[in-house]
Design brief:
By secondary structure, this protein is mostly beta strands. The protein contains two helices and 21 strands. It is elongated. 37% of the residues are buried.
Amino acid sequence: MTRIAAAVLLLGLLGVAGCGGDQQPEDAVEYVTSTGQPPEEVEAILQDLFRGTVVLKRLSPPTKEPDYGIHQPTYCQVAFGPTGAENRWIVRSGSTLAFDRDGDGDLAEEAFLAGSQGDDCLTFDAVVLKFGDVSYSVTCMFWSNDRAWIEVKDHGDRQWRAWGDHEGSLWFAQSPAGAPVVHFDGPLCVGIETQLAVVREKSRTYRIAAGVGCPGLGAGTFANLEYKAVPAEAKPEAIVTFPGPTEKDGPVTVSLLLKQRC
């Protein structure tokens, strides 16, 4: 079982990016096991391995906040760069959004963004943040059940998207103390891009939904890097070892060249 997870970890480090949204992943590892290992056992090991290299911390609560009226504010924090040192608060109240553009913690001085209501989601115009020579465009969207989607583009046309992971969907929190922290443009690692980390597709066949991106703090905060940023020639090899059909049999090793992306 450990070799299974290690092989998937290799996939992420070599540049296999995942599919986004609620789509079923098309580029994930598919393998056949001779013993039909339960998906939950694999998932437990995957969760143990997918750890980031940056220790993220929540900011102090905003120093000043506007009058949100009748709507309960909900909070999220976004972090940028190798160490996540550049942090900003985002606060939603109903169909408006307060964005701490300058990072001083004073949301009362920021103009509200008004959302555009679609058939099933509320979308806000992008906010551009600049840190030295690097700029990011941040777009927030909320589905009808208040699940959040945050998309970030940099000046080099790389894109990250955070909407959910193996811990759950991305939700803004009721207080700053419990706010999720989404890290963009940080050190890359492999992560789970859907709540269903391992899906059984047919008899003894499973698909692992792994992608490359930046882990955050809290459920749903894994920020997937769009696969277009990964060189087209990157076709990693997965070497997966399974137990044999019986205790007397030796292990079965399968080598897979991953060519398909979503």
